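Dear all,

This email documents one entry for the complex benchmark we are building for the journal club exercise. For each entry we list the sequence lines for every component of the assembly. Then comes the predicted three-dimensional structure of the complex as a token string, followed by one or two observations. Please use this as the template for your own entries, and keep the labels exactly as they appear.
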Amino acid sequence: MTVSSAPGKVYLFGEHAVVYGEPAIPCAIERRATISVEARDDDHVRVQASDLSLDGFTVEYTGTTDDRPDVDVPASLVDAAMGYIDAAVEQARDAADAPDAGFDITVESEIPLGAGLGSSAAVTVAGIDAATRELGAPLSVEDLADRAYRAEAAVQKGEASRADTFCSAVGGAVRVEGDDCRSIDAPDLPIVVGFDGGAGDTGELVASVRALKDRYDFAADTITTIGNIVRRGERFLDPDPSDPAADQSVEERIEEIGRLMDFNHGLLESLGVSSRSLDSMVWAAREAGAHGAKLTGAGGGGCIVALDPTPETLTGLRFTPGCEEAFRAELADDGVRRVA
Amino acid sequence: MTVSSAPGKVYLFGEHAVVYGEPAIPCAIERRATISVEARDDDHVRVQASDLSLDGFTVEYTGTTDDRPDVDVPASLVDAAMGYIDAAVEQARDAADAPDAGFDITVESEIPLGAGLGSSAAVTVAGIDAATRELGAPLSVEDLADRAYRAEAAVQKGEASRADTFCSAVGGAVRVEGDDCRSIDAPDLPIVVGFDGGAGDTGELVASVRALKDRYDFAADTITTIGNIVRRGERFLDPDPSDPAADQSVEERIEEIGRLMDFNHGLLESLGVSSRSLDSMVWAAREAGAHGAKLTGAGGGGCIVALDPTPETLTGLRFTPGCEEAFRAELADDGVRRVA
């Protein structure tokens, strides 16, 4: 049996604007999807999934049948998760030149589904890595990121971003601009995540931002403004030695990153992708003294990310109506991890 | 006895950005301050104020003594209201060339103090109008607006906007850009106001936006973007016959104005002038089906304005924790009104 894990991520800056060529900065967090793969002696694929949401559940699901698992999360999310696993299997078969390989696959995930934390990218990265290794054809991290991107693109009908899978495969903080993804340094960020238990429809949210941008020049300007926030943010994450930001203490740089996150959140609000519960969690974090807080991912529901080295934001979120779950998430220095 | 009333206002678009030369559109609403003035045969001024907040109170306050009224609202707000009345008396004495005129003045107001609804402008306009008429020296509406501006500027140490007093004196919707204020047409807007019972510190909020603007180019860009929203908004309030907006139904134009208000709110959020309770009321309005909702005025607390022809937003706001008071407010076609 071969076991790989891969981390989820938060967006510190730039979601939505990244679709239009602006830079963005996702950041891997220590919440992982772990995939165990065992080769079969036929060409079937059998998937057992547990803990696909924070509530947790266990299903047996055979990708080749029409059986619908009897679980406590929306069927569309389970279907989606299974779609990513199927696509990961296809990539692994192709990479190992083993078109008839069959697998028993177990998925365990600490990353809420569809909540903007990159659960699908983590499942895809860990799945391809475990399956290719099980077939004796391990991939470099770069090839893994590329194959995982192609798997996501297949499921999402070409609408995938390279950033999510790159970040999950490589770990750490990532700067993405168009198809260019690269790791950047980042201080040890005191990340706190709040989750409202829901999930926005990424496709619908991306389309609604596009409609606003097409309708209003000032919406296009707002997207450019988000890009400018990202360009400032990266200076404080990973300052060039010649940059005055490099003279600041780590604490000062984190405070500045928080202020930029606050501003970024307002602009996302203006683009119509926040929600009552997301704003409520953002305010809880700010009033608890967080350096900054914003929604992360597509929005419409799901998660916020805040920076707070004290326990206050975590406590504040846990007492906030509409916040189902709050947790501290370390920056994940490792991307894909070869567990067994 | 001479009695004048003057309306409060909401900002449909452009608060804060107006400080930097962008246009803004305040709009008078049928919530009034009513001032009764009776000349005295000495040079004293005696002020009786009632209902200076929505909670209501009655005080006797003599401007020339140090007596502090024993009331249930922050003393700073009462002092502020009295400051405007003193300044209005000074303008009336000057306009009527009666430096020693004394008055008994009664103030009744339906406009919450310091909540961004222009209570001070309404008190100042109605006060100058009633006092000048009582002295037999009535002013034109233009002169009244100008004198009221000068009174506000004296109290606010030169930081006043001409828009508030112009809007209260003239009524209706007003386009302001720099020192240029002019009336514009507006359809009959289904205005709903939600009030959180609080008040932001206008001076502090204006200063915090200035600090952001000085620190970040993207904050300056955001202010410009607000100006662009206003420029689009005025086309839908008062379309030029050659503008495609003129071909839309009033209903369609109001829906567009709502969308622009939503966007404007997000940009104000990014500038740091919203608050948890303001955002909570904005979401209540949106979820109740309002065409749009935003904070109005300086922010930090106070009021939101929403557009909804149905009773839903009013009901939604009344059930929203943090909303102390919600009311429908007709557009006030009249500005200052000569009651007696």
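Observations: Residues 2-185 of chain A form a domain with the Ribosomal Protein S5; domain 2 fold (CATH 3.30.230.10). Chain A is about 40% helix and 25% strand.
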